[in-house]
Each structure stands twice: as structure tokens, then as C-alpha cells.
Recover the amino acids of this structure.
């Protein structure tokens, strides 16, 4: 059960080699064994998971089974799941039991997938190391001294340590791709609007997008088929025909034009990571792809613009945590104002407070034009860079993160160093493009991820590129030591 | 441009977050670093550029004003830190 792909698990369940209850119990046992050291999960509920598995077994028995029926999936604790504690990694929501299902959870439930638990994450998805979580740091299964990346760090550790066959994540500035890179598996952030944000706790609404985190591109394609689709409960959901993402995986990549942006290979990139990416490019050339040099001249402005736009949206989104309707409320207060101030001081962690303050500042009277409007104009420049690039190439390739996993605590006191982790991922969120991270090698036993960026709605193209690469390499199949 | 303690107090008030006197130095230092990073934006001329507020050009969809989720009052109230019957309870606001 440990080494099977989602497709193989589905076939085994269909041919009654094992039941969903057996499979679910197998992964629950693994979680019991490894979670105390990794801290990948915030909430585990054996009873609920096994009840779901039992139902899935009935579906399989009755012959009405789809591709994920009976398969346990770890859910990032940002997705509201009816009756499950949903914390978003914050003290503010420590005891919040979601009263309804997010669309993502609803879709997994309808497909008969089993919720195996809610995974740890940076508080309100703000972070690149999982160190801002109120529920403690998560360890990188490849090296317990290192961070797993973030914000979807719990999902990342769970997939890498095989505590679940696959997991969900969300990506506002790189929160699926950077942890996938640091933990050595495949993760995909879809085109903005492809996966519904309904019931997904909001950080920066114009950038947030949910996506799959799994071992291979094929696994991600199967997950994506369940997760996508128009939803009238999300006003930014895109109304277009639902796509099949598995059909095109094996298409020939001969003649595909890979754009390589020179800005991704400057001094911010670790030379060893650069070498790994170069080797991947050589591999693609051997497979018949054409390498085209391109430029994304405004990429250096992506982080500055992001740290205006994302905090601005966050400051507005997080105003709902006021201690009145749900979530944390301070114990002692004199009046309403005092209650607000103390509730938010005590309920939010430092990084979240910093971003709310920055967001409030850039939106405040007198600064709006200089910061918020300026950032929105730069967002346009960045999106235009990609538009021009895609006139010359079909996909864009580069590193997912500037380095391999770093030590816990190393960047915790320096927000700016932490923000640089997302230097290659943020621009695609600003432009709304789909992008994925694919394992491409190791540096001193720590995984390195390759980033493939597609044009809008071209998930199929990057999945195809990733799948063909994975048919010719086995980087994605390497496992951390000590997890068997 | 740097951000000063007085300004931090002002925005903290707007954001309804209490920042204690002891925290102020650290907050100032870190926010100032972030503002310096953001300042890089001023290096480019964006005069004739149309601001982009959304990743894709879509219109705001409209729907009929109809109740879709029924009878969620009790469930919703059960999540409140302090509720009484069908009300959220907050400290007295009006004398």
C-alpha cells in the first residue's frame, strides 16, 4: 500500500485486493507512528475517517466507484470540513468546528475519497517554513533539522513521509510549490479561478488557489479532475468546460518550446540548484524539447508588489476575527473596543499581525496611490511579461525555490530572508498562471524542485511535460530514510 | 520612506490590534524592513499602466437574492464565544 500510485490504489480497491477501511487504517497507523516526530497533522479523527472508508467500501461494492473512491487524502487545515476542527494554524480558530463543507472538501467527499486528517500549516497560510503555526513547527522528513517549507508544510511532510497517498494545499505566493520542492514530491497550483475558494479560509483572495500535492504528475492530474469545476458560491470561479487531465499525460513533447527566463538564474539562485535545473533542461532537450531564452524583466518587482497586495487583502479578510461570532475571544475586557484589541493581540501570531499592519498602512488615506495602486500597476507589468514570453514559448521552466530546505529557526527572525523563498513562485500568482514543482535531483540528500509554468488553463501541458520527465527519471520516487 | 512609531500606533488602532510599548521597537524594526523592500516599486515608471486588480478579466456574476442555506441559525450561534438564545452577546455599547 505504501508505494502505490493513486491509479494503482484505485485499481487495487476495485479488484478487492484490500478495502478502503484496511487502506485507511494502514495510513492512520503510519500517522500514529510518525506524527509525534513530524507534527504534520493538527487534527486526526480515526472514527470519522474510518466511517468515511466504510461508506466508500459500500460504494465500491455497489460498483459505483470513481478514481479516488476509498483513497485517503490529507486535507490542509485551511479547508472547512463539516464537523471537523478547522484551525488555519491559528490560535484564533483553535476550537473552531466548521459548520459546513468547503467546495473542495465537498468534491472529495462526493468522489468517495476519505479525509485522513487536517494538516498543519503556517498561520493563515502566511509563511514559507511552517514556523508561524500556532500548533508548532513541522519537521522535514528528509532531515528533521530542516523546515518542510510553507505554508502547506504539514501536507508536504505528510506526502513526503507517506502518511497519506496525497494531500491538498493552497498557494498564494508559492505555498504548494515551495514545500513540494523542499520535500521532494509533485505539487500543482492551478490557474486562478479553476478551483473554488468557497469555504477555503481567505488570506489574499485575488491570489489564493487550491491544488494537489502528491508523488507524481499522474497523481496530481487525478486529484485535479476531482478538485476543479465551476462553483456559483465563488464569484471568481471560472465557468468553463471541465477538463480531463489524464488523457494528455503521455503526449509526445517533441518540439515543445521551453522558455528559460534569464532572471531566474541570477545571483539569488544557489549554484547547486542551478546545476540541477540545467541537468533537467538537458534531459528535456534529449526528449526533443526546444530551449528558448526568454526574459521576465519585471520579476524583481514581484516580491515588493506581492507584499503590498497580499497584506492589503489579508488586512481586510482578517478583520472578521473580532471575537464576536466565532473563534477566540479574550478572557478579560472593559468594553467592546478593549475586547477587539485584546482578542486580536492574543489570537494572532506575530507574522499575521505584521501583515495586517502593513496591509492597513498601504490602504490607509494618503498612501493608497503610492503603494496599493502602484502595486496593482506592477502586477500588470508582470502579467504582461508572461504574455510576451508565451508568444515565443509553450511552457516556462526554472527552479521552484532558491535553495534546498533550510534549518529550522534560520530565517525565523528575518522576515525579508523568509520572503525571498518565494522569489520564483510569486509572479505566477500575480499573473494567475498555473505552475507546478517537480522533483529533479538532490543536494546533500535534500530534494530540489523544478518549476514548470504554463499559460492560463494549460495545466494539461505542464502535467504532460512533468509526466514525460517522470517517465524518464525517478527523482519523484525517492523516499526519505526511516519512513518504512 | 520609513515607518515611525507614531504611525504604527495609528495603524494598529485602525487594525484593532493592541501593540504594547515593549513590542513597539521590534514591530517598528520589522515593518521598516518590509517597507524598504516595498519601496523598490518606486524604481519603475508606471504612469500609463492600467492597474490590475484581478488575475483574469471577468465580470462580477449576479444571482437571485434567494435563501439557499436554511436553518443554520442554531449551528452558527453555537460557534460564538458568547451567545444567548438567538443573539451574539457583546459588551454594552449604548448606555
Amino acid at each position: 500500500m505504501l508505494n502505490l500510485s493513486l491509479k494503482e490504489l484505485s485499481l487495487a480497491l476495485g479488484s478487492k485486493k484490500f478495502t478502503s477501511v484496511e487502506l485507511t487504517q494502514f495510513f492512520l497507523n503510519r500517522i500514529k507512528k510518525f506524527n509525534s516526530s513530524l507534527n504534520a497533522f493538527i487534527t486526526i479523527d480515526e472514527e470519522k475517517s474510518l466511517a468515511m472508508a466504510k461508506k466508500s467500501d459500500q460504494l465500491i461494492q455497489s460498483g459505483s466507484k470513481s478514481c479516488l473512491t476509498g483513497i485517503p487524502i490529507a486535507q490542509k487545515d485551511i479547508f472547512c470540513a463539516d464537523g471537523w476542527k478547522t484551525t488555519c494554524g491559528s490560535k484564533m480558530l483553535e476550537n473552531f468546528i466548521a459548520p459546513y463543507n468547503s467546495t473542495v472538501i465537498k468534491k472529495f467527499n462526493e468522489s468517495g475519497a476519505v479525509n485522513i486528517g487536517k494538516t498543519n500549516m503556517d498561520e493563515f497560510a502566511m509563511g514559507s517554513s511552517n514556523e508561524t503555526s500556532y500548533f508548532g513547527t513541522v519537521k522535514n522528513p528528509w532531515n528533521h533539522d530542516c523546515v518542510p517549507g510553507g505554508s502547506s508544510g504539514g501536507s508536504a511532510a505528510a506526502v513526503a513521509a507517506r502518511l497519506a497517498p496525497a494531500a491538498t494545499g493552497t498557494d498564494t505566493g508559492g505555498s504548494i510549490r515551495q514545500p513540494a520542492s523542499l520535500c521532494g514530491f509533485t505539487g500543482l497550483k492551478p490557474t486562478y479561478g479553476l478551483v473554488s475558494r468557497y469555504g477555503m479560509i481567505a488570506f489574499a483572495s485575488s491570489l489564493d488557489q487550491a491544488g494537489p500535492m502528491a508523488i507524481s504528475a499522474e497523481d496530481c492530474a487525478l486529484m485535479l479532475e476531482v478538485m476543479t469545476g465551476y462553483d456559483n458560491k465563488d464569484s471568481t470561479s471560472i465557468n468553463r468546460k471541465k477538463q480531463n487531465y489524464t488523457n494528455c499525460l503521455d503526449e509526445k513533447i517533441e518540439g515543445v518550446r521551453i522558455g528559460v527566463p534569464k532572471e531566474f538564474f541570477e545571483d539569488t539562485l544557489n549554484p547547486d540548484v542551478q546545476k540541477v535545473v540545467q541537468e533537467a533542461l538537458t534531459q528535456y532537450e534529449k526528449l526533443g524539447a526546444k530551449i528558448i531564452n526568454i526574459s521576465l524583466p519585471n520579476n524583481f518587482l514581484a516580491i515588493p508588489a506581492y507584499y503590498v497586495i497580499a497584506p492589503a487583502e489579508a488586512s481586510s479578510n482578517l478583520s472578521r476575527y473580532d471575537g464576536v461570532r466565532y473563534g477566540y475571544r479574550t478572557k478579560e475586557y472593559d468594553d467592546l473596543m478593549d475586547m477587539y484589541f485584546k482578542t486580536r493581540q492574543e489570537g494572532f501570531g506575530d507574522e499575521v499581525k505584521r501583515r495586517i499592519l502593513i496591509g492597513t498602512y498601504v490602504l490607509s488615506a494618503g498612501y493608497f496611490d503610492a503603494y496599493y495602486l502602484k502595486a496593482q500597476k506592477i502586477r500588470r507589468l508582470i502579467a504582461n511579461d508572461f504574455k510576451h514570453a508565451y508568444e515565443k514559448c509553450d511552457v516556462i521552466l526554472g527552479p521552484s525555490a532558491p535553495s534546498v530546505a533550510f534549518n529550522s529557526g534560520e530565517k525565523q527572525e528575518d522576515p525579508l530572508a523568509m520572503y525571498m523563498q518565494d522569489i520564483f513562485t510569486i509572479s505566477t500568482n500575480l499573473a494567475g498562471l498555473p505552475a507546478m514543482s517537480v522533483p529533479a535531483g538532490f543536494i546533500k540528500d535534500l530534494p530540489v524542485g523544478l518549476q514548470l509554468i504554463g499559460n492560463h488553463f494549460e495545466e494539461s501541458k505542464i502535467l504532460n511535460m512533468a509526466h514525460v520527465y517522470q517517465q524518464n527519471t525517478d527523482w519523484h520516487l525517492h523516499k526519505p530514510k526511516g519512513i518504512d | 520612506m520609513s515607518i515611525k512609531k507614531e504611525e504604527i500606533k495609528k495603524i494598529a488602532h485602525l487594525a484593532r490590534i493592541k501593540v504594547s510599548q515593549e513590542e513597539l521597537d521590534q514591530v517598528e524594526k520589522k515593518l521598516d524592513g518590509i517597507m524598504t523592500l516595498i519601496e523598490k516599486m518606486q524604481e519603475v515608471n508606471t504612469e500609463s499602466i492600467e492597474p490590475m486588480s484581478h488575475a483574469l478579466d471577468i465580470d462580477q456574476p449576479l444571482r437571485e437574492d434567494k435563501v439557499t442555506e436554511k436553518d443554520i441559525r442554531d449551528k452558527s450561534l453555537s460557534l460564538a464565544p458568547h451567545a444567548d438564545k438567538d443573539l451574539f452577546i457583546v459588551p454594552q455599547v449604548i448606555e
Q: What stands out?
A: Chain A touches chain B through 73 residues (CB under 8 Å). DSSP finds 15 helices and eleven strands in chain A.
